[in-house]
Amino acid sequence: MKKSILSITMAALLGLGVVSCREEKSEAEKAGEAVEEKMEETGDAMEDAADDTGDAMEDVAEETEDAMEETKEEM
Q1: How far apart are CA 63 and CA 71, in angstroms?
Q2: How far apart are CA 38 and CA 67, in angstroms?
Q3: Which of helix, strand or coil describes residue 67?
Q4: pLDDT for 20 beyond 60
Q5: pLDDT at 75 over 80
Q6: pTM, entire model
Q7: pLDDT, tens digit, for every residue of 22-69?
Q8: SS3 label, residue 9
Q9: Whole-angstrom Cα distance, residue 36 to residue 30?
Q10: What's the CA gap between 25 and 31, in Å, rounded?
């Protein structure tokens, strides 16, 4: 009788242990996906910032060129 109770208890504990490990893995996967998503958003933001910087540099170059031409004409 003791052996059967012990066997049933061990089987139940093993079953619970396997189920709890699966839940942790699922949560770890969710966390990994969240990190990946944030990295993609950060990469997109960096690309946008680089594009904005390039556009600003082009605008400044054009303004400088225009100013130089005006100065040349005044001379």
Answers
A1: 12
A2: 43
A3: helix
A4: no
A5: no
A6: 0.51
A7: 555 677 788 888 999 999 999 999 999 999 999 999 999 999 998 898
A8: helix
A9: 10
A10: 10
Residue carrying structure tokens 């109770």: 5
Report which residue type is found at 1: M
* Residue the block writes with tokens 């619970």: 16
Q: Calculate the alpha carbon distances from 49 to 11, 23, 39, 52 in Å.
A: 57, 39, 15, 5
Which amino acid, residue 9?
Answer: T
Task: Please enumerate in sequence order all residues whose Cβ is within 8 A of that of 65, keeping only pairs 6 or more positions apart, or say none.
Answer: none
Cα(42)–Cα(49) distance, integer angstroms: 10
Question: How far, in Å, CA of 34 to CA of 51, rounded?
Answer: 26
Residue with tokens 């594009």: 51
pLDDT score, position 23? 57
